[in-house]
Amino acid sequence: MPVIEDPLALPGRRGTIYPAEHAAGFEGRVKRAMTEKLGLTQFGVNITTLEPGARSALRHSHTQEDEFIYVLSGELTLITNEGERKLRASMAAGFPREDDNGHHLVNNGTAPASYIEIGTRSSDDDVDYPDVDMKGVKRGGRYSFVRRNGDPYA
């Protein structure tokens, strides 16, 4: 049975796969992937730490993937179409697929904040980013990003 004794000791991945013009602000996001180490295939699991000033993603919504977060430590600001809400340790939030309520987390505090994120691992998905001229297209498990009119990023 796969066990990870100290998930926070796993190597962390910084940054984002977004096109360069949308990649700023993610240097302080550290994702520690647990999915493969645990042999999981149906959903993804990460422990993510946002350093002060960092954000989880651009505000977005998925057509095929559910998302769930559980705050482990610190304080985060959840930003959705409805506005802002503070999330503290032991609070959880869910983002159902096909709900066009764009969301992301921002650490507006002075200390790092960590959370568990769990999401569907669909091979195909479409992602809307309501605040920028971008759409995410996932086919066969691979993401690409295009402008709203369908033009690829250079």
CATH superfamily: Jelly Rolls
How much of the sequence lies in strands comes to 35-45%
Q: Return the CATH class.
A: Mainly Beta
Total strands? 13
The largest beta-sheet arranges its strands as 1-2-3-10-5-8
If you consult CATH, what is the topology?
Answer: Jelly Rolls
Shape designation: globular
Averaged pLDDT: 95
Q: Tell me the radius of gyration.
A: 15 Å
Report the end-to-end length measured between terminal Cα atoms.
44 Å
Low-confidence stretches: none
Name the helicity range.
under 10%
Helices and strands: which structural class? mainly beta
Largest sheet: 6 strands, antiparallel
Number of domains: 1
Strand-and-helix sequence, N→C?
EEEEEEEEEEEEE
List the helices and strands and how they pair.
Layout lengths: L12 E2 L14 E5 L9 E8 L10 E2 L4 E7 L1 E6 L2 E6 L3 E4 L8 E3 L6 E8 L4 E5 L4 E6 L2 E5 L8
Describe the structure.
The chain has strands at 13-14, 29-33, 43-50, 61-62, 67-73, 75-80, 83-88, 92-95, 104-106, 113-120, 125-129, 134-139, 142-146. It is mainly beta and 154 residues long. The strands form three sheets. It has a six-stranded antiparallel sheet with strand order 1-2-3-10-5-8, with no helix packed on it. The protein has a four-stranded antiparallel sheet with strand order 4-11-12-13, with no helix packed on it. Strand 6 (75-80) and strand 7 (83-88) form a beta hairpin.
